[in-house]
Amino acid sequence: MMKKLKTLTTSTAIALASVGGTAFAQEATTTTAVDATAVNEPTLVSKPVADAKPEVKKSSDVKPALDAQASTVKQVEAESQTAKAEATSANKAVTTTETALTSAKEDLKSAEAVKANATEENITATKAKQDANVQAQEANQKATEASTEAIKAQTETVATETANVASATSKKAEADKTVTAKEANVKSAEDALNGSGLGEAKASLAQAEKDIEQANANISSATTAVETAKKADSNRAEAIKQATNNVNVKNDALKLAKEMMDADQNKVDSIQEKADATASKEKEAQTALDAEKAKLNKSEGMNIPNPTFTIPSNVYNGFSADVLKSAGVSSNVVTFGQLLKLEKANKNNAIKYDLDDLILTSVADITKKSNANVKYDNADQNRPVDIDNLTDAQKLEISEFYVNGLKQIRNAFKDSFNVQSETGTTKEAVTLASTQAEKYEKRGLDPMVHGHVPNAVENVASMRSDISNMYELKQAVYNNLMFTTYLDGVSNADKRHPWGHLYANLNFAKYVGIDVANINGRHYMITAFSNEGTPVSKSNELAQLEAKLAEAQKQNSQAQTALTNAKAELASASRKYASALEAKTDAEKELASKTASPIQTEVAEKNLQLANLALKNAQERKATAEKAVENFSRSQAEKQTALETAKAELATAKTAQKDAETALTSAQAKLQAEENKLTALQAEQAKLHAEKDQLVSDAKAIATELSAYLNADKNLADAQAKVADLEAKLAQAKSTAKLAQDKLDAITTKLKAEQAKLAEIQEEFDKLLDLENKAKENVVATLPDGTVVAVDSNSNTLPTENTEKNVDKTKTASQSGKDVALDDKEDVVVKDKEQTKDKQQTYSAPDVKSGADEKVTYSRVERAKSLPDTGESSSVAMLVLGAILGVFGLVTVRRKN
After folding, report:
1. Where does 505-559 show beta strands of DSSP type E?
2. Which residue from 298, 520, 616, 822 has the fewest beta carbons nearer than 10 Å?
3. What is the tally of structural domains in the chain?
4. What is the distance between the alpha carbons of residues 129 and 498, in angstroms, rounded to a whole number?
5. Does 828 map to a domain?
6. CB under 8 Å to 789, separation ≥6 — which residues?
7. 525 by DSSP, 3-state: which?
8. Is the pLDDT of residue 137 over 90?
């Protein structure tokens, strides 16, 4: 203890003796356990023991840390430059991606605009327009073909009528000539009879001869015209044949294009049907999954009670011990199952009716309580059902609802009857119910009258026929269960087995399935029992439905892709068909043009016939003229006869002339009528061609529109994918940019911290270095708080400091060949060791009571003040005394010589 106090006092004095130089004080707390048993022992101020020598921090001690920190700062600065480059690159990537995304969004808007019009309604309408266009084309084609044939026939008719008019005209001309000749003959005959006019008769003869000559010339020309006409008609026929062949080729191409378009349309229709089916299946799978999920969250179900009933004493006492034992009854408080067991075993007719009344009362009580507690999901009111066509999912759902109550019933009856230990719903049980329902429907007989169909056991209960939603259907299921269980004794049509339905519910088979039968317009609920299959688990069912949905989505996706491809093929086929139609239309126009040219042979042949007829008539006129000349040399009687003959012939000729005129008028009228028909047919065909031109133009526009619609999904999907890809890239780029910026910010913060730390170490290093330079001329010491001070080595007085700090061991003046002692004024001074080796100052402290574990703490040390060699700022002795008082309280100082 003496050594501890001696060291404490010495260290305190040494620390307070530091004079000169710059000193920095820091907050420090040092605790030293005080031994209460030795506080009055004297303490000597002397140099510390060897093991208590403190080390003074030197600049060389700090230099490694300084170099290391400088290296760290340099490394962080390099990291900062790298982070800046990365941040710049990341920001540039964000800008580039944003630009690309803006462009892609514009493309997407265009694709969306097309897609907005590519609705099913518009596509259907466009297809309808295309179908109508095709139908119009077909109708136009038929009309055009009919028109062409009609024009062809009418052209021939007109040619015939033209020839007839020419013939009639010629005949009229010949008739006119004949009349003129006959008139001349009559006059000649008259002149001959009168003895005059021979010259005129000879003139008529000469004219007849000229007419014969002209007729021969006409025959020669007509013969040449016939040959020319035949050649022209042959050329016409060849042109028509070529045009017809071209039409046939173009028509074959059109037919092929139409067949391809129809095939593609059929392909689209077929795939559309499959796609609609897969889409419907996906929707059904989604609906089933949603329904199953909803069922898991439903708060529906039955809560069928199993109360006890007290049998009246008169009834209870009427049972024999054997009956009570067989029913498992030991008191008059029983369950409903025990009541039925008692009823079944009872042989005492005296209590039968009372027992029946008790059973009915019990049934009413159970039914009333059960009705009050059954819960239905209100959402089921919005779920329509067709009880004549329930889906498999709906059948399973109502079967599960039935099982919910049946489990409770079997549990309630298990102590009284043999019941199935397992209860559930299987698909096989539902299938059995459906099979039995079909049997009842095919039989067509009322089961309430004619009983069950063979080969199975099922409960059959009548139900309402106006059920339209799942809520009402589940109510019917509940009623079915209650009637076939608790009310079976009074509702069963088979009075021989009043509880037969109940027994079937309890133990016929483990699993239950339900369906509805429509028997001649009346509906019955069929509850079938089976041991086949695996019970439907909601979790398993959910997993199966999810798998089913995934498969349906996969198949629908494939079908929709196939539909898209088929529609693209149809669009291409539509364009090809429009082009083929246009080519065929042009070919038909060319054929019509060739067919419209007139037929020449018939007219030419008619003209040849007329020329021959004219020759014949001229020859006849010549013969008549010759007779007229000869008549001048005949007798008077012959002349008279010749005159009468001439007159008769004139009359005949005039008649023929009139007939020829009538025939000509008729032929001309008929020709005009036929020409009008031909003109009308040609006008009609012109309209058909104009209509066909419009149909071709419309077909092209429709094909273009349809192609745009059918490819809209793909184009939109591509545009959307591009935007999504760029958005993802932009998000990634922004994320990368943010990370780069965060990294830069973190490194910047780290750099500032490291630079501050470097500055701090540099400052410490500079101060130590400065202090070391000063130490060459001064004494260096470290205060308890770590502050290093330098005292001029020529100074023999330490500054007075008021301190309450426990001073640690430090580098003292004694380490520099100096020692600390008290002078005559009780001031602490630094002297050479030789001066102090025979003198020591001893201090005794008063008693200080302290706990064994009590620790003493000390506060701040003020900055040391430098004193000149010739003076002091305060009494060093008082400073030391203050320090001792700060540690132990009141201290007395005694001088020991």
Report:
1. 511-519, 522-530
2. 520
3. 2
4. 69
5. yes
6. 18, 19, 20, 21, 22, 23, 780, 781, 782, 783, 864
7. strand
8. no
| Element of type H or E holding 21 | none
Cite the beta strand spans of 657-782 per DSSP E: 778-782
- The three-state secondary structure class of 456 is coil
Residue 876 lies in a domain: yes
The helix/strand/coil state of 794 is: coil
- Domain that includes residue 314, residue range: 304-373
Can you say how many angstroms the Cα of residue 781 is from the centroid of all Cα atoms in its chain?
A: 83
Q: Quote the Cα angle for 787-792-798, to 5°.
A: 70
Highest mean pLDDT out of 163-172, 610-619, 741-750: 741-750
Flag whether the pTM goes above 0.70: no
Pick the last residue of a domain from 373, 393, 412. Answer: 373
- In this prediction, residue 261 has a pLDDT band, given cuts at 50, 70 and 90, of confident
Handedness of CA 65, 71, 77, 82 (dihedral sign): negative
Instruction: Give the model's pLDDT for residue 104.
Output: 92
User: Does residue 450 fall inside a structural domain?
Assistant: no
Report CA-CA distances (Å) from 712 to 110, 724, 881. 10, 18, 102
Q: Which two tokens stand for residue 33?
A: 């356990």
CB 473 within 8 A of CB 387: yes
* Helices vs. strands in the chain: H and E counts, helices first: 20, 15
What CA–CA distance (Å, rounded) separates 316 from 339?
Answer: 11
Q: Considering the domain boundaries, does residue 291 fall inside one? A: no
Domain boundary (350, 373, 396) is at: 373
- DSSP three-state, residue 831: strand
Is residue 366 a contact partner of residue 304, using CB atoms and an 8 Å limit?
yes
What pLDDT score was predicted for residue 166?
Answer: 84
Both tokens assigned to 702: 């429709």
Residue type, position 47, single letter: K
Cβ contact 118:708 at 8 Å: yes
Extract the tokens encoding 817. Answer: 């060949």
